[in-house]
Amino acid sequence: MKRILPLFFLVLVTTVSAQKKSELIAQVAELKKELDSTKALVKVAERNEASSKTKAESLERQLKDLQGANAALLENLNNFAEVSKRNTNNAQKALENLDKREAQVSEITDTFTKNDSLAVQVVGKAKGVLGDVPQLTIGERSIAIAYPVDAFFADYTAKQLNSSGQSTISQLAAFFAAYPNYDIVVEGLSNTGEFDLTGAQAAILGFELNKAGVAITRIKTAPRDGGFKDGFRFKLEPQFDSFYSEVKDKFKNN
């Protein structure tokens, strides 16, 4: 009996020890399994972290690129706005200049139109003041009143006016006084080429007009080829020299 008890205790202890060892082994295996799982999770986490870091760096680069693109776009928009503003100002100035030019052209056109309409008026007045003159015509920007030689001189070589010539000069002077903005051109017409003679007689008529009250600055005289006619022609013309000078000054000042 005494031998059996120690043996029982030995078997019991051995059994318990074996059981604890088995449990420890099982626990160790479980812990290793958990450790392996944890390591796997850590690796996954590390990979995810690396991927997230890569994505974060990529997103940061994209953000910087977008910021740069936005800055460039904003600068371009500012430049476009500035250019558009300058173009608008230039267009406005161009329109203002165009309006000025149109006003100037309109003024010139009105002046020419006024001269044309005045020419018709002058014809009517000429007939009223001068009576039935031999020939009265409207030329380009001028009115011409023609007379034969004997209306002023006794013959082709005379240097003094006859009585009817003096009367006609007085009528012409009164008629020309009504249009102070017109110049008078006295033309001596010759069909034989004797321009010295007709030129001298035209100068005499210009001198007589001045004596009758027409300003000498308005009078010009010249010989002309009369074709098949002799005589004298008085042309009433707008003062284009002063007119064009005025127009030039207006364009220069604007």
Describe what this molecule looks like in 3D.
The protein has 4 helices and 5 strands. The protein has 254 residues and is an alpha+beta fold. Strand 1 and strand 2 (142-147) form a beta hairpin. Helix 2 (163-177) packs across helix 3. The chain starts with a helix and ends with a helix.
Quick recap:
The chain is of the alpha+beta class and 254 residues long. The protein is built from four helices and five strands; from the N terminus they run αββαβαββα. α3 links the parallel β3 (182-190) and β4 (219-225).
Strand content: 5-15%
* Count of alpha and pi helical runs: 4
CATH architecture of the domain at 133-249: 2-Layer Sandwich
The low-confidence parts are none
What is the spatial order of strands in the main beta sheet? 1-2-5-3-4
**Overall mean pLDDT score?**
77
Keywords:
single chain; 254 residues; 60s Ribosomal Protein L30, Chain: A; rod-shaped
SSE map:
Elements: H1 4-130, E1 135-139, E2 142-147, H2 163-177, E3 182-190, H3 195-211, E4 219-225, E5 231-238, H4 240-253
Parallel strand pairs: 3-4
Antiparallel strand pairs: 1-2, 2-5, 3-5
